[in-house]
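Complex 649.
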Amino acid sequence: MNKYRLCTIDVGKNTHILEDYRFEDGILGPIDLAINLHLNKYKSYQYDVYSPLNAIIFGKGPFTGGALIGMHRLTFIFRSPQSSTLHVSSVGGVGYRFMNSGLDAVSIVGKGRKPTILVIYSEPDCRLNIVYDSISKSELEDVFEGFNGFKGVYALTYYLLNRYGEYIRRYRLRPILIGPASIYTINGAIFSFDIGFHNLSIRPGSEDSAARGGGGSVLYNAHNVVAILVGGLCEKALFKDRKWVDELIRQLFNSSYGDIIMKTTEKYKYSSKLGTGGTFGVNYIMYRDLIPVFGYNMIYLSRFLRLRLNEYILKYFWSPFNKIVSRESRNWFTCGEPCPVTCKKVYNGKKVDYEPFNALGPYIGVFIFEDTLKLVEYADSLGFDIIELGHVIAWIFDVVKNGLLKPGEIGLSDHPRFDPLTYRPNDSHKNMELACEVIDGLIKKDNWILRMISDYGLRYTVKKLDEAYRDRVLDKNISFKDLAVYVAYGEYGYMSINFYWTPGMLAPLYILGRYWTNYHPTFMSPEEYAASSLERALMEYLIDNSGLCRFHRGWGEKVLPILYSKLLNTDIDLKKHALRMYSLIRLYSIKAGAEPRYWEGKKVKDIIATIAGEIEVEEWAKKFSEDLEEGLRGWWSRFNDYIVRTLEG
Ligand code: SF4
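Predicted structure with iron/sulfur cluster bound:
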């Protein structure tokens, strides 16, 4: 554990090189490495986002080996086709297999001539092998259409199990792969499934994805890579000293390791007080009427009406899940690493999490759980980032509801039921059918607007539509941009936000679309909010950089500084380190022309203003009611100034 090993694979030349980095030089994990490579070596900000120099870098933290629980995520870093700047996205449990490759990180550059499959594994003596294989585009498309009774990413996984079964079993490999959404849209996720080696099948609940930011689209379009199998039998440099960990935890928390994990992760396992567990189970109970539904249009409703919608959600959406998952079957699994939290709650074979289920559930006007289940399964099989997909669908429904487009003009067969005032839960079925039409249209690209969304994203599309339909915009007194919910970067970059009613998700920060911000439903002065958001962003940086699962942050954040100093013998102030690296992310964004821009649509501004009123922060609620635009600009600018000042140090 005295160096961080990178393998750079050029899939254009079928070559690889190994390089070792020293922790004391400030490379503490995959994000540090990726920022340095993108800024100084590849200079990817100069090129098209699908340039082969837009390296996909993925890596684990330095503390893998099994003794430390929750330390086995694999973090991906790339320049995002959505935000146009660097993005970070991670996937659970993959580090648990990747650690036996003998590598800490992989950088993929170049572009394969054919759709490429990489097999990266090591022998027991840690000798590294890389197999460069390929699949024709037509065979890949056939596989996505159906293999072994499965479709999309599931089918490709079974294809890999079939083709490389012997390797997978012998070298304990885990697949990382893309689906059709990565080929046809800028919204493709990177998927991974843990494998049951005895019967070569997907282990239930272990499906996970580094979904946000379009990493799958970069993997395919920049590098022509469709799948990577990683693992091996190398045991060197793994940290396995459980006794040391037990002792450390006892000193820090005066508690056993098992107890502190259970105490700090209760929400994700099971809360007996709430009678539920996991993000889906807990959030609908905890946030109630603050949950974003109907494309954030609930911000325009009274609390009374929002609570009525929440009653629908609890009855038709949450209860069916909770009855089965929390009480009857208790099918709880892990992401792939042995972890007592078993946060993966599985309903009828499908893992249920808050964000994707809200995205294709109440957020798009689908309140019947089984309807959302079908949608999530379908979208997952196609390999979409479902949060972004939910935003696209909700925006389309809103655009039609507001009369800016007729259903047929955007590939819909009917009007969605998207008015919360007249909505009844039975309207779910109609909205589910229409959502399927959107999903199919994004892949088939048989409608010019859907094609534009697939190729260039939502922000580019709203700008073009505002020009193309200027008369309608004037007539309806609302623009396409007004109905979209995203944070803007540069000219066309954007990131759709996670489902929390909070200014933190929309604030001028450099990596959003995840939890690198203060995401609590709260409001404060811009400086105070910026300070709390930056502090959270830096902590999340350290979490992702170390491969720690954020569900373990309750104890993990306190342990990280000790791990770096005692296990790696580094004398680095982690907070200062994270601040320095975050300022390099900002530098990259400036070079890429993708700095945060002021809020540009009405709904985004209303999300900010309404939460100030909701939380009853009098000073700002008053400012917003006197002059909304001036108040918002003032808040945004002061927030931004604080961040820039702090980063410039
Ligand atoms: S809490 Fe869940 S995602 Fe995190 S390590 Fe445990 S099983 Fe994996």
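The pocket of iron/sulfur cluster is lined by residues 70, 92-93, 268, 334-335, 337, 339, 341, 343, 549, 551 (CB under 6 Å).
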